[in-house]
Amino acid sequence: MRTDPLPFERIRNMRIDADLKQQDIADVLNVRQNTVTQYELGTTRYPVDALIKLALFYGTSVDYLVGLTDVKEPYPRA
What we know:
By secondary structure, the chain is mostly helical. The protein contains 5 helices and no strands. α2 packs across α3 (33-41).
């Protein structure tokens, strides 16, 4: 059983909190469901374009998704 924290666990938690399946996120990212599994387990890294899509989808910032800030609201656009 895995006891260490998952990398970018916040992204997985946001999916679960939104009551979405991995396939729903796969559709957003235009990837296969097993790719989302690999992202969530940390066996494959999220590409930057996927992080941007997820930030826009969830209405937050990339910094929030990867745990660099606890401020959920996106940054204002200049």
